[in-house]
Each structure stands twice: as structure tokens, then as C-alpha cells.
């Protein structure tokens, strides 16, 4: 017999609603808490976001193509979603389902219609060659609220993406030269602002509101509202699904909440990306095999030894890490950390100092290249297990559920906490979107 | 999947080792008595091969099975499972037990059920049942009585909450001696629990707060040692007070 979407028992439905009436949620959260958020980057700059049980992977790639004739000096941004049946038995392989299309559209709308990614800077030669950016979103595990997780993954991947630098050359200056990353430092995309999607679920008769619904809450909910908003409180998109009606005042409340959450999430995202940048810069330091061997032995390497061991690039004297166009080698005293211990924070701050200080370059070389965020996570999980509560996981990481929830736990505080536009402006922004949808410009496909 | 092979058998050298699907664990030509195979094993000609990842287990005199931990459940006879009624048909219920296909539950497979007196279960009702037939080519069949026809705890579950976990955790919760997390919780809280081998756990307590606490404690316990589980439960209890 064919299996449909996930089934849910009456018991669970009743329990979730009953608990919510007491301001409790099944995973120990309160109604306006986000789940634990973890953002990881792999070496190829793909971003993986974990939001509680939900896991989403986003990968950005770029290709030089001919531009559309009506927009000769604009690059393109295309979003593709892939829902693996491994993530949820309800996802069918092959053709994208209703949810896959909707998810792609919501993210696409947030990014494209608010012009978050500067497409004009992707032009290499007008009318001839532009960069086509492709964003692939893979759902790895469906634990509910795929939209927010996928949106964060998409932003993280776009922020960390680097495309090779291109210049024009040749006899007539019309040949496109793509510089490999070893020769010229790859360039980041120019991103004007970060549209953050924040999803609410309406349960019961629409009177119970929760933020960041889990899978089970999604199965019970009567309606869903996704608000894409940036740190400035500008609404970039609103998507409402399900049958439950939402009053204007309720919508305004959601907008305020969303904008608070978006501010916190943006900060978090920026912080994580910054850490990743530092990591990436540090990875560029060439390491000799002897280093690794020594570091495993836990020895302190003398600077005299170091100089002999490391290849030195000519460019080193005049470049700092932040400005380097060439593949730079930093050298100097190498301080080896204790086995198993990685002091990421110190490493990062030292590194910045070093970049500023040309004469005395001291770099801490980590023997392990594991992404910092991943490390943080694992430590946190351990700490969490000590702590013993799922809901409290977050307060150990810089990405805290606490901070996420703290500001918005009390809706009355929200207005003071966030510098957002006046409600009138917000309302106007929302109205416009709603109008658009009626016209069919914003369709729930 | 109960394959009985009337061929000779010696104890497999791979007992208590973690094996991968396709690994041949036993050669039947060298075996000397009847074997009983549990989940995760398959007879392939003269060989017994693994069908899933896990630790090969053996119980004297002749029982072999595989213990692994999965998110998706594969039905196996004599498993106790938590099901959700999906449909009501003539003389049977269709039940979702989290397996690759739905299971069927005859209406007469309840204690004291007769043609005139059948249980009245709505679509969406949760129930605790036993798998009586499981074969890869047909839908599994459930039963809400034990082998002697008594209810023995099987049947519909009222109220409470159902959480989902891995099959590995479910087995730990069902195993004896009682798992540390349940022991620690049971010392200070009163609650009802029904664990299905399909990775569904039904928890019911007087207050929603207790139910939430118990379900979170169970989910947190999966990768903790016994001592850590005790500490975790204590901390959760302190917080809730």
C-alpha cells in the first residue's frame, strides 16, 4: 500500500495544543523560541544549517554565460531546491513537490525581488559575458521549518561564496581572462542586505501562535506565515499558507516579532561568516609536514627552525593577510597548542593582530582544520548533555536560542527593542505585497 | 523474516561484531542444527547474509539476529510497535507503524472481540500492537493480544504524547535491566510509557509539563552513559521545580 505524508495521531494533536495553551512546547521551548541554530561551512564553502533536527545544505556555484539580451549588463541568480527522500519519507524522488517549489520561490523572492544580491557587479563584459550564480539547496533532514533553515543556509552560502576574478585582456582588450584563485584572490559577491525568513505557525483555531514550528507542529498547524525581513526592518516578502485567517493586528505583531528575530539572526550569521573568513585566511598558510609531526608531539617550535621549514613567498614583506592578492605565506613563531585543544577565539584575534603588524608576524597554526563552528557545536553538545535540556542547548553557543528568544519573548517589549520602521511603513510594505499576490505576481505555486 | 533452515550449524565467528549488509556470517554446509534468524539476516543459498548494518547477536542454542540503530523501521515478527490508525476497512484497520508499508490489524485481533462487538477506533487513534506477520513481499499484520489471546497491555492508547526516536534507543528502553534514564525518571516522577520497536514512544503523565520533561529526557539520553543520564535527569528535574 502506498504511503502518503507522515501521519499523526489524535493524541499528539491534542497534546500539542493543550501544552501550547499552557505556553509549553513539546521540545521544551516557549512559543517564541527558535531552536538551536548551528551553521557550518565546509572547505568548498558550502553551508550547512542545522535548526534543531532540520538540516539544510546550500551550495553556490558560478559560471560565465551570455547575458539575457534585455539585460546585457546583469548577471543572474538561480535557485534550485532538492528534497531528498532521505530527509522525509513523504518527499518523492524526481519531480519537485509542492513544498519544494514553494520553498524555492520564497527564498528567491526574498533575495531577488529585494535586490539583495547585486547582479550588475556580476557583469564581466556587457552583452558578452556575465556570471550566472546558481544556488542549490539540499534538504538533508526535515525536522520542520525548512523555509527558515533553507533561507539561512542560502544566505550563509552566498556570503561565503568566492568567484574567480576576471579581467579583460588580449590584443583588442576583449578577451576574458579568468584568474585562478592561486594567482588572484577570488572575489565575494556583493550583497546589499540579508533578507531573513521567519516562519510562524498558527495552531488551534488560529489563536495559538508559535515561532519556528517543528515537524509535528507543522502537521498540526492550521496556517503558516513566513515573513522575510532584513535587519533594517524592511519587509522583503510575506507568504501565508493554510486556511486559518490572520487579523491585521496579529499580522503586525508577527512583523514586529519577525523583525526582532531577523536582527538577532543577522548578527549571528555575520559572526559565523566572519569566523569562517578567518579560518579561510588561516588555511592559506602553507604547512610543512614536520610541523604537523611536531605539533602532534606537542612541542613548541622555535622560530629559527620555522624559517627554514617554510617556503617563503616574495610578496610577504608587503602584504598583509587581508590585502593579499597573492598566495601569502605567514611565518614566525609557531605556537603549538595542546593535544585536543583548539583555542579558536585566541587564534582568531591573534591573527587579526598579526595582519596589522607587518614586522612581527606571529601566527598560531592549528593542527586541526576542523571548522570552528563545528567545534563549537560539539563542545556545546557535550555541555548541553551536562546541562541536560534540549531547549537550553543554544545558550552555550554564540548562536543562542536564548538571545533569539529573549528579546521577543514578551511581545510588548518588542517595539522598544527593535529600531524598525513605523508601523505605517510596515503596513504599507505589507499591503503592497498582498496586492501583488492578488494580481498573481506572487503566487503560491 | 523467520527463516528456518534444517541444516547443520556451528556458531558464527562474527557474533558480537558489527557487520555490513551483504557480509556472509555463516556457512550452512558447515552448520549442524536448525537456525532461527531474526531481523537483519537472510538466507542466501547455503549462506546466511546480513541485510542491514549492526551487531550480530546470538542466543543459545540457535537464534541469530542483528541489532542496529535506524531511523526507519523494518517490521519483524514479534516486535511490539506503536501504530496510528490510518483507515478503517471492512473487518480490519490500516495502521501506520512507520515501516515501508502500512500494516493491517484485523478487527477480531483484540481481546474479547467478536463479529458483533468490534473495537471502535477512529482514524488517528494510537495503539500498541504486536507484529504477527512480517514478510518483505506482503504488508505486515498486527495483533492487539498476546499469543494466548489476552490483551496484555496491547490496544488503544488514550491521551499522552508520542515521540519518535531511533530503533536503537527504543530497544534500549525496552531492554532489561531498566535503562538508566527510565530508572532515574521513575524515582521522582509518575508516568506511563509504552515503547514500540518502531522507534515510537508513548508517554503519558498527569501534567503536560511532566510529559514534556520525560520525553525530552528520553530523547537526550540516547548517547549518554548511565551516570550522565542520571545527572541529566537530575538537572531537568531541578529546572522544572
TrEMBL record, chain A:
Q: Give yes or no: UniProt keyword RNA-binding.
A: yes
Domain named Exoribonuclease phosphorolytic: which ranges?
A: 35-164, 193-259
- Alphabetical list of InterPro entries matching this protein: ExoRNase_PH_dom1, ExoRNase_PH_dom2, ExoRNase_PH_dom2_sf, Exosome_comp_Rrp42_subfam, PNPase/RNase_PH_dom_sf, Ribosomal_Su5_D2-typ_SF, Rrp45
Its name, as the record gives it, is Exosome complex component RRP45
What is stated as this protein's family in its record? Answer: Belongs to the RNase PH family.
Source organism per entry reads Sphagnum troendelagicum
Q: What is its main location?
A: cytoplasm
Q: Which CDD domains match?
A: RNase_PH_RRP45
PANTHER family to which the protein is assigned, alphabetical: EXOSOME COMPLEX COMPONENT RRP45, EXOSOME COMPLEX EXONUCLEASE RIBOSOMAL RNA PROCESSING PROTEIN
Q: Keyword annotations for this protein?
A: Cytoplasm, Nucleus, RNA-binding
The lineage's top-level taxon is Eukaryota
Record's subcellular location? Cytoplasm; Nucleus
- Give the classification, highest ranks: Eukaryota, Viridiplantae, Streptophyta, Embryophyta, Bryophyta
Automatic annotation (TrEMBL), chain B:
Instruction: Supply the SUPFAM superfamilies for this chain.
Output: Eukaryotic type KH-domain (KH-domain type I), Nucleic acid-binding proteins, Ribosomal L27 protein-like
Extract the Pfam families matched here: KH_6, Rrp40_N, RRP40_S1
Any idea which UniProt keywords this protein has? Cytoplasm, Exosome, Nucleus, RNA-binding, rRNA processing
Location(s) in or outside the cell = Cytoplasm; Nucleus, Nucleolus
What residue stretches are annotated with the Exosome complex exonuclease Rrp40 N-terminal domain? 35-72
Q: Domain of life, per the record? A: Eukaryota
Q: Which InterPro entries match?
A: Exosome_RNA_bind1/RRP40/RRP4, KH_dom_type_1, KH_dom_type_1_sf, NA-bd_OB-fold, RRP40_KH-I, Rrp40_N_euk, Rrp40_S1
Q: Which CDD domains does the UniProt record give?
A: KH-I_Rrp40, S1_Rrp40
* Domain K Homology as annotated: residue spans: 160-208
Q: Which family, according to UniProt?
A: Belongs to the RRP40 family.
This chain belongs to which protein, by name?
Ribosomal RNA-processing protein 40
**Protein's organism:** Sphagnum troendelagicum
The uppermost taxa in this organism's lineage are: Eukaryota, Viridiplantae, Streptophyta, Embryophyta, Bryophyta
Amino acid at each position: 500500500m502506498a504511503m502518503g505524508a507522515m501521519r499523526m495521531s489524535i493524541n499528539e494533536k491534542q497534546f500539542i495544543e493543550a501544552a501550547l495553551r499552557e505556553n509549553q512546547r513539546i521540545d521544551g521551548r516557549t512559543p517564541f523560541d527558535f531552536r538551536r541554530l548551528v551553521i557550518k561551512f565546509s572547505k568548498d564553502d558550502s553551508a550547512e544549517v542545522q535548526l534543531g533536527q532540520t538540516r539544510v545544505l546550500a551550495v553556490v556555484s558560478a559560471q560565465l554565460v551570455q547575458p539575457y539580451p534585455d539585460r546585457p549588463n546583469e548577471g543572474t541568480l538561480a535557485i534550485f531546491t532538492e528534497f531528498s527522500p532521505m530527509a522525509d519519507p513523504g518527499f518523492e524522488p524526481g519531480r519537485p513537490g509542492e513544498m519544494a517549489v514553494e520553498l524555492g520561490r520564497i527564498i528567491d523572492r526574498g533575495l531577488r525581488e529585494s535586490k539583495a544580491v547585486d547582479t550588475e557587479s556580476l557583469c564581466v563584459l556587457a552583452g558578452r559575458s556575465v556570471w550566472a550564480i546558481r544556488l542549490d539547496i539540499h534538504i538533508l533532514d526535515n525536522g520542520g521549518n525548512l523555509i527558515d533553515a533553507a533561507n539561512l543556509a542560502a544566505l550563509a552560502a552566498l556570503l561565503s561564496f568566492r568567484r574567480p576574478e576576471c579581467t579583460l585582456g588580449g590584443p583588442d582588450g576583449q578577451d576574458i581572462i579568468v584568474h585562478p584563485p592561486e594567482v588572484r584572490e577570488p572575489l565575494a559577491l556583493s550583497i546589499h542586505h540579508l533578507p531573513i525568513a521567519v516562519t510562524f505557525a498558527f495552531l488551534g483555531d488560529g489563536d495559538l501562535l508559535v515561532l519556528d514550528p517543528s515537524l509535528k507542529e507543522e502537521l498540526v498547524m492550521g496556517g503558516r506565515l513566513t515573513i522575510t525581513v532584513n535587519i533594517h526592518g524592511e519587509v522583503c516578502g510575506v507568504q501565508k499558507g493554510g486556511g486559518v485567517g490572520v487579523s491585521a493586528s496579529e499580522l503586525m505583531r508577527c512583523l514586529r516579532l519577525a523583525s526582532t528575530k531577523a536582527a538577532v539572526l543577522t548578527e549571528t550569521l555575520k559572526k559565523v561568516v566572519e569566523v569562517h573568513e578567518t579560518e579561510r585566511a588561516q588555511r592559506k598558510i602553507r604547512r610543512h609536514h614536520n610541523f604537523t609531526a611536531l605539533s602532534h608531539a606537542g612541542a613548541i617550535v622555535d622560530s629559527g627552525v620555522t624559517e627554514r621549514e617554510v617556503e617563503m613567498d616574495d610578496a610577504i614583506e608587503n602584504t598583509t593577510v587581508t590585502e593579499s592578492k597573492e598566495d601569502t605565506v605567514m611565518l614566525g613563531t609557531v605556537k603549538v597548542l595542546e593535544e585536543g585543544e583548539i583555542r579558536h577565539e585566541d587564534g582568531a584575534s591573534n591573527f587579526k593582530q598579526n595582519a596589522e603588524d607587518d614586522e612581527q608576524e606571529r601566527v598560531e597554526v592549528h593542527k586541526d582544520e576542523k571548522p570552528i563552528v563545528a567545534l563549537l557545536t560539539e563542545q556545546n553538545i557535550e555541555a548541553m548533555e551536562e546541562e541536560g535540556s534540549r531547549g537550553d542547548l543554544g545558550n552555550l553557543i554564540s548562536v543562542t536560542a536564548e538571545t533569539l528568544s529573549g528579546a521577543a519573548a514578551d511581545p510588548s517589549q518588542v517595539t522598544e527593542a527593535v529600531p524598525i520602521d513605523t508601523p505605517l511603513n510596515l503596513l504599507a510594505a505589507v499591503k503592497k505585497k498582498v496586492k501583488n499576490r492578488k494580481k498573481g505576481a506572487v503566487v503560491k505555486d | 523474516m523467520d527463516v528456518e533452515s534444517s541444516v547443520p550449524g556451528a556458531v558464527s565467528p562474527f557474533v558480537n561484531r558489527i557487520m555490513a549488509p551483504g557480509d556472509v556470517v555463516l556457512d550452512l554446509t558447515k552448520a549442524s542444527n536448525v537456525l532461527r534468524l531474526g531481523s537483519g539476516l537472510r538466507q542466501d543459498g547455503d549462506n546466511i547474509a546480513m541485510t542491514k548494518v549492526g551487531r550480530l547477536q546470538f542466543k543459545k542454542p540457535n537464534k541469530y539476529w542483528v541489532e542496529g540503530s535506524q531511523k526507519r523501521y523494518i517490521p519483524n515478527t514479534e516486535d511490539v510497535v506503536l501504530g496510528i490508525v490510518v483507515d478503517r476497512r471492512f473487518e480490519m484497520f490500516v495502521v501506520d507503524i512507520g515501516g515501508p508499508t502500512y500494516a493491517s490489524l484485523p478487527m477480531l485481533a483484540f481481546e474479547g472481540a467478536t463479529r458483533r462487538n468490534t473495537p471502535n477506533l477512529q482514524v488517528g487513534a494510537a495503539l500498541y500492537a504486536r507484529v504477527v506477520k512480517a514478510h518483505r513481499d506482503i504488508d505486515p499484520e498486527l495483533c492487539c493480544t498476546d499469543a494466548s489471546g489476552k490483551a496484555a497491555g496491547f490496544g488503544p492508547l488514550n491521551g499522552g504524547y508520542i515521540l519518535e526516536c531511533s530503533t536503537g534507543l527504543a530497544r534500549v528502553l525496552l531492554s532489561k535491566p531498566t535503562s538508566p534514564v527510565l530508572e532515574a525518571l521513575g524515582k521522582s516522577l509518575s508516568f506511563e510509557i509504552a515503547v514500540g520497536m518502531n522507534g515510537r514512544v508513548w508517554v503519558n503523565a498527569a501534567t503536560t509539563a511532566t510529559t514534556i520533561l520525560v520525553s525530552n529526557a528520553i530523547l537526550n539520553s540516547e548517547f549518554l552513559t548511565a551516570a550522565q543520564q542520571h545527572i541529566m535527569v537530575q538537572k531537568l528535574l531541578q529546572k522544572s521545580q
